[in-house]
Amino acid sequence: VTAYPIGVCVLSQDDDRELNSVILSKGMPMPSEQTQHYRMTEPNQTAVHIEILQGPEGVAREKCTLLGHFDLLDLPPKPDTEPRIEIRLRLDTNGMLTATAWDTESGKSADLTVDYKNHPGTSRAA
């Protein structure tokens, strides 16, 4: 099972703080796969920087462990900030964590793979 919650860095709508939004909860069996949808932070945004974090839901970014980051680029601008970025986290039985971001408007995607079981600051329970 997962020893810690894993999520992505999001901007709080209340006070612009960077917080962890958990996608894979602590204690989930391995393998696990979960998906969440996120909105852009600004109208006409054309890129998204995605940070994969280990830490509890709603905890400040700087108090979480950064597992990795990647970018989703060249997105078509839209005047609204409706949810359009789908982020999927998948943790396999070997401890490989794959993060995939997909823009539902353009179909563009990007991904990142992290060897979670060997990442500094992480551990897992079997």
Description:
By secondary structure, the chain is an all-beta fold. It has strands at residues 6-11, 18-24, 32-39, 48-54, 65-72, 83-91, 96-103, 109-115. The strands form two sheets. A four-stranded antiparallel sheet has the order 2-1-4-5, with no helix packed on it. The chain has a four-stranded antiparallel sheet with strand order 3-6-7-8, with no helix packed on it. The protein is globular. The mean pLDDT is 91.
Low-confidence stretches: none
Number of helices: 0
Distance between the termini: 6 Å
Number of DSSP E strands: 8
Mean pLDDT over the residues: 91
Q: Which range does the strand content fall in?
A: over 45%
Give the helices and strands, then pairings.
Blueprint: E1 6-11, E2 18-24, E3 32-39, E4 48-54, E5 65-72, E6 83-91, E7 96-103, E8 109-115
What is this structure, in a nutshell?
The chain is mainly beta and 126 residues long. It has strands spanning 6-11, 18-24, 32-39, 48-54, 65-72, 83-91, 96-103, 109-115. The chain contains no helices and eight strands.
